[in-house]
Specification:
Layout lengths: L20 H13 L8 H23 L1
Keywords: Membrane, Transmembrane, Transmembrane helix
């Protein structure tokens, strides 16, 4: 998740600007929690999932034959 479109409940400003201490704390927490898959879009994750399924199907057919 990114903080580009989040609005702070404390100051009603964009979290990405960090206008108040609540914004800055939340923005820092979001940046710390971002893992290796956080930057991927849902379409990229779906493509990765479909690729893994295709590889599993091919591997199963090779193992049976």
């Amino acid at each position: 998740m990114t903080c580009d479109r989040l609005v702070c409940a404390n100051c009603a400003g964009p979290v990405s600007e960090g206008r108040c201490s609540v914004c800055r704390a939340h923005r820092a927490r979001l940046h710390q929690e971002s893992g290796p898959l956080a930057a991927l879009t849902p379409a990229a994750l779906l493509g990765l999932l479909l690729t893994l399924i295709a590889v599993a199907v091919v591997a199963q057919r090779v193992a049976v034959a």
